[in-house]
Write a structure and sequence with these properties.
CATH superfamily of the largest domain: K homology (KH) domain
Oligomer: single chain
Strand order of the largest sheet: 1-2-3
CATH class of the largest domain: Alpha Beta
Helix content: 40-55%
CATH topology of the largest domain: GMP Synthetase, Chain A, domain 3
Shape: flat
Number of domains: 2
Length: 150
Amino acid sequence: MKLRGNDESKRQARVAQLIQEEIANIIHHGAIKTREPLEEDLRDNISVIDVHMTPDLLSAKVFVSVYGDAAAKREAFTWLVDHAGKVKHALAQSLSGMKRVPDVHFKQMDVCSAVDLMATIDRLDSGHNDGGLPRGMIDGIDFDNDGDGL
């Protein structure tokens, strides 16, 4: 899933892809040196969804999704935000050929909610719902726009 717009240059896209792959490897291998490391099960639940680079390549917005319950999501995302400098340091070590390594800013995305929404839309579109209600109805709510009130 790519969130990049058409206004991004090819160079930005290439660097963003490289940064995305490297940050994913750094997180999953626990290559961040810190006094309070993130537990392996939480690291495994983090997905790096996309990276947006500024035109000057000095800043990267890293979009992540964390699977699990609300407490685990909060803990993992807070850890990433608090240790963004350490992630940048690990990134600089793995990308030693780059002249400058961008600042890393984490943004959270909830992919699970999006998947649930898409499943609901598919159920509406196919006419299948769990309550035996007419097409366009889920849990008694009319989602179609046919003006029948049903």
